[in-house]
Structure formats: structure tokens, C-alpha cells
Amino acid sequence: MSAGSERPAAAAAPGAVPAPRASRVELRLSCRHLLDRDPLTKSDPSVLLLLRSQNQWVQVDRTEVVQSSLHPVFSKVFTLDYYFEEVQKLRFEVYDTRGPGDLGYQDDDFLGGMECTLGQIVAQKKVTRALLLKFGRNAGKSTITVTAEDISRNNGYVELSFRARKLDDKDLFSKSDPFLELYRVNDDGSEQLVYRTEVVKDNLSPVWEPFKVSLNNLCSCEETRPLKCLVWDHDSRGKHDFIGEFSTTFEEMQKAFGEDQAQWDCVNAKYRQRKRNYKNSGVVILADLKVAIDFTASNGDPRNSCSLHYINPFQPNEYLQALVAVGEICQDYDSDKRFSALGFGARIPPKYEVSHDFAINFNPEDDECEGIQGVVEAYRNCLPRVQLYGPTNVAPVISKVARMAAAEESTGEASQYYILLVLTDGVVTDMADTREAIVRASYLPMSIIIVGVGNADFTDMQTLDGDEGILRSPRGEPALRDIVQFVPFRELKSASPAALAKCVLAEVPRQVVEYFSYRELPPRGLGTHTYDAGPERAGQPGVRPVSVSSTLGVP
After folding, report:
1. DSSP strand pairing (283-293 vs 263-265)
2. Structural domain of residue 198, as residue ranges?
3. Residues 285 and 333 in one domain
4. How many CA atoms lie within 13 A of 381 on its CB side?
5. Whole-angstrom distance, CA of residue 473 vs CA of residue 481
6. How confident is residue 258, by pLDDT bands cut at 50, 70 and 90?
7. Do 491 and 354 reside in the same domain of the chain?
8. Residues in contact with 377: Cβ distance below 8 Å, sequence separation at least 6, in sequence order
9. Same domain? 368 vs 502
10. Residue 496 lies in a domain
11. What is the dihedral of CA 84, 345, 492, 2, to 10 degrees?
12. Which of 254, 260, 262, 246 is nearest to 181 (CA)?
């Protein structure tokens, strides 16, 4: 085939990672006007979370105990997988905790419960309900508030460790019993409790235990968002004495810690106004700061060495091996060496909505990349910016390329032929729509190459390849011609790139010739040049230039 002025055809997408179609959400709890079950002090509330499973309630997690409080705000965050298509029933039970063990200890007093679905909380973002006692009786004015926040777009977390020095002594006969609270300041000026440390008894220079929080919880993934730290002297009756506070940001924490200057004056504003020489009520020091990635949220994270998308600095992953092997052959027949590169099955910035046909260079106006190396670079740059999600819907990207091919055919010349390279590690989940899209595309100047990456069961994928019979749409309409070639990469993993490309591209010449024969279009500008498309095609007139581009799909 000779190269002409053809425009590169849209090409393929590596399919979505077979990750669960779940969103990761964090739930925060607070209560108001709880019943007071203690004769001398106030209730010591804690909340038990239960999930309805197989017609029974199963304990999931529990909050910490907030001593002597009828209006507790819990620092414990519940993290759950939210499935849009499922009804996930939750139950929150509040107890006045007296026993030394787990919630449900026989001496614990039940203060009320509330049931709802996770979907209701996620949809409303904040749910406040009355607490009910047994037999549906109201627990006075008691209420529980549950706030949900989606953390799917960022699975990073930070581990912090604080200590203090020379805090004010608030006790007459002993030393202060300090604890620290960390708050996030929201856009509306409200303050969200992020974490509350344990109490260190009788110590003016306490060292608090390290704790881990999600970056979403800490600062909504905005490093310049204001943070506030308050230090208190604990009182068993709930009337804690304020020692002091300071404000900072996560950005400032990181910079100060890196420069070994991570300490802040703990200031009591009242003392500053009253005392002329007042400096502070002690110093709070950031003893340790670690930022990392929690890979439990998605086993397809490209920073995880177990992921098929793992970017190994010493060896290309299977996606890149397949892309380069096939792309380097195809690009010889593309005049300008520019390739459309599309992704599917990922949540993309800025709103992190799921897309099945996005440009991996994040430029919807021009999704083309310079050469195969440009596609590789776009793929590498794209992975850290998206959340691998699902499902593996292939029909949208096929339809998008088909529209380009249809526009070309409408000119009456069809001087461009489109090859869509689909790289996927998951079985197609929209099989009916995909079959329909392929049947429609069989009338257009395009071919589809599907390379299965990884060890998934690709049995159903063989139905898309017309080698074993004519592919039909769900309505029974047959494809005009076989335009799909499916190859499991694992069978050719140890083969040379040339052998892989030969196997993957084996049917393309025949498919191109069949299209031009069907359209009764003679080759243009190729003279008597012949192209060997297999024994049955030897000696046939050459075909028009093929326009190729590799659309890379990031699940």
C-alpha cells in the first residue's frame, strides 16, 4: 500500500480494568440531644454500624467513645464501597458505653437507632434522622446526622504524628491531660472534625500516637485549604479546658516538615489579650509526616506492581507491548503519523465522571498524538490523572470511530480506511450494544482489532470475531463482512514484536480489499501495484491508503 494524504483513523482503547463498579465513600457521624443514662455524669456515647446481609444485620465497624457528652461529634470515619445499582441497608445504633469490651457489652445502654440505605445518604450527602428505641418509640429529641463524601477520585492518604512541649497546666493538683483535635475548614467557613487524638494523662509535653487519614478527609485534596488544630485538657465530666490553637495548611505542613521547622505556637486568644508578655501556651510539633497511596481502593492502580497498567521503568507493560508492536506496523501506512488516542472505563478530571470515549491527551478538540511514541507518552501521563473504573463498555468508542468512517464514506471516495485497535483486560460488558455497533461498522471503511491483555476469560470475545460464523446484531441482522480480529496477548507474550504484529494484522488486508470490492471502488493513484493479502487475494488490484491510529483506552 502506498501512503497518500489520508487522515489517521481513530484507533483503539485498552479496556477497563475488571475493578468493582463501586464508589468509595466516607461517612462521618454526630448526634444531638442524646438520652442521659448516667446518674452522676452524662452518657458516654459510641455508634455501632451494621449492614444488612443475607437477611441479617452484620456488624461493620464502630466509632470511638466520646466521654460525658449528649452532643458528640465522632472523629472515627466509616469507609464503605457504594454500589449504585444495589440497595445497601445500614443501621446505626447508639450506646452509652460502659463495658470494657466491644459495643454490645451487656451493661451498655441502648440510646436509639436509625435505619436507612447508603444510597439515601450518598444522594442527599447529609442525612439527619430521629433515633428510635425499641418498638419504634422516639428517644426524646435525640437525632443522628450522617454525612457522606465520595473519595473515589483520590485514594491517597497521609500519616501524621504530633507532639507538644511546655503546654499550660490547667490542673491544680496534677498536670494537664492533653489531647489534640484537627479540623478542616470548609468553603462555607464551617469546621469539619478530621481527627481527635487519644488523651495523654498528666503530661505537659505529650507525644500522641500517629494516625492516618485520607487526603480527601484532611483537606478535600486541596493542599492550601485551611486547617485548624486545637489542644484541650481533658475533663472526665466533658468540660474540657481549652489550652490553645494554631492554623496551618497541608502545603505548609509539608514544606515546614521538609525544612525541619514544623512547629507552631499553641495560642489562647484570651490570654493574648489579657497578658502583655504572653507568647504562647506551649508549642505543637509535627513529629512525622508520610504521604502514600492506598492501593486497596483499586487493584488496577497503575502505581501498583500487580496492576496490568503498572509503569515499570525497566520493561513496558502488556498494554504498551501490544500497542507498540501493532502501532509501529500500522504507522507505515499513515502519511502524517498522527494517531487519535481514546480511553474508556475511567473517571476523568475535572469532575471525575465516568467516560467511555475520552481523549487520553485530555484535549477533546484534538485527540491526536504525534506517532506511536506520542500515544505512549499520552498513556503514561494519563494514568496518574484518572481513576480506573469500569465497566468495559466498548460500543461507545466503536461508534465514535464509525462516525468518522461514515463521514469519510459520505464523500463518495472513501480514500481513508480506519483501523481501531482495542486493548482490553476485561470481557466486554455491553456485548449487545457492541455487536450492534460492529454490524453497523461492517458497512464502513474500518476494521477492529481487539487484543486481550492479562489472564481474564476471553471466551465471549471470540463471538465478535467472525472466524467461527457470521456475527449478528441482537436483532438478527448479519454483518456485511468480518471486520474483527481478536487475539489474546498471553498466547503471544513470548513471541517477537514482529510475530505479534503479523498475527494481529493478518486479516486486515483481506478486510480492506473486501470493503473496496463491496463498494466497487478501484484503487486510486496506485497504478497496477498489487498487494499480497493472502493466497486468495494474490494478484488483486492494490487497495487505497490505510489511515491508522491507535486509540488507547484507560479503564
Report:
1. antiparallel
2. 156-293
3. no
4. 13
5. 13
6. confident
7. yes
8. 369
9. yes
10. yes
11. 160
12. 246
Q: Are residues 264 and 362 in the same domain?
A: no
The dihedral over CA atoms of 459, 463, 468, 469, expressed in degrees to the nearest 10, equals 160
- Can you tell me which residue has the cell 491508522? 548
CATH assignment of the domain containing 123: 2.60.40.150
CA quadruple 205, 206, 211, 213: dihedral positive or negative? negative
- Residue 313 maps to a domain: no
Write down the pTM of the prediction: 0.53
Provide the mean pLDDT of the chain: 79
From the CB of residue 516, how many other CB atoms can be counted at a distance below 10 Å?
Answer: 20
For residues 192 and 266, state if they share a domain: yes
pLDDT digits (tens, 9 = 90+) for 124-159: 999 999 999 988 899 999 999 999 988 865 657 889
Domain assignment of residue 302, yes or no: no
Q: What is the CATH number of the domain that holds 530?
A: 3.40.50
Q: Could you please report the per-residue DSSP string of 130-192?
A: EEE-GGG-EEEEEEEEEEEEE-TT--EEEEEEEEEESPPP--SSS---EEEEEEEEPTTS-EE
- Cell digits for 80? 464503605
* pLDDT at residue number 358: 86
Number of Cβ within a 10 Å radius of residue 118: 23
Residue 160 pLDDT more than 90?
yes
